[in-house]
Amino acid sequence: MLSRQLIIYFLLCLVAMLMVKEFSFSPESFSGNGNPVILLFPFVLLTFGLFGYELFLKIKEASYKEAAWRIIVLCSFIVLVAACVLEFVYFNELIQKLGGPPTNHASRIYHFPWVNQYTNTIFINFYTFLIYSSILTFFTSLFRWKKT
C-alpha cells in the first residue's frame, strides 16, 4: 500500500511542519517584523493536499477483507479523537503562555489576527496533520468498508 510518492509527500509534510515551527516565534520572544510563515502557507497547503490525495488513492485502491476495513475505520477514529484532544490541550497551553486570546488587553497577541507570528503552530503542527490524515482515512475506509 505504501508507495514512494506517498512517502515523499509525507516527508515534505514533515519538512513543511518543521519550517512553520522554526519560523514561528515563541511566546517568550518579541517580534516586530510581521509573520514570515504567511509565505510558507502555499507550500504547506500544497504538500498537505498532495499527501491527502495520494493517501486517498492508495486507500481507495486497497483490497482488504471486511474485518480489516472495520479495524482501519476503528483505529483511524481513535487516532482522530486522540489528536483532537492533544490539539485542544496544545492550543490552550499556547494561548495561556501568550496571556490570552487576541481580544485580551494583557495578551501578547492583543489586536493581532488569529494567524500571527506566535500562533502559526496552532494551525500547522503534527496534531493537525494527524487530524487531517485520520479524517481522510476514516471516511475513505468507511466508504470502502460499506461498499464490500
Main attributes?
148 residues; mainly alpha; 5 helices
Average pLDDT works out at 91
Rounded to an integer, what's the Rg over CA atoms?
18 Å
Mind summarizing the main beta sheet? none
C-alpha termini separation: 18 Å
Number of helices: 5
Total strand segments: 0
Summarize the amount of helix as a percent range.
Answer: 55-70%
- Which regions contain 5 or more consecutive residues with pLDDT less than 50? none
- The class by helix and strand makeup works out as mainly alpha
Query: Could you state the order of secondary-structure elements as H and E?
Result: HHHHH
General shape: elongated
The amount of beta strand, in percent, is under 5%
Summarize the structure in words.
The chain is elongated, with a radius of gyration of 18 Å. It has helices at residues 4-23, 41-61, 66-97, 120-123, 126-147. The two termini are 18 Å apart. The longest helix is centred in the middle third of the chain and has 32 residues, at 66-97. With 148 residues, the protein is mostly helical. Helix 1 (4-23) packs antiparallel against helix 2 (41-61), helix 2 (41-61) packs parallel to helix 5 and helix 3 (66-97) packs antiparallel against helix 5 (126-147). The protein contains five helices and no strands.
Compact description:
By secondary structure, this protein is an all-alpha fold.
Write the layout of secondary structure elements.
Blueprint: H1 4-23, H2 41-61, H3 66-97, H4 120-123, H5 126-147
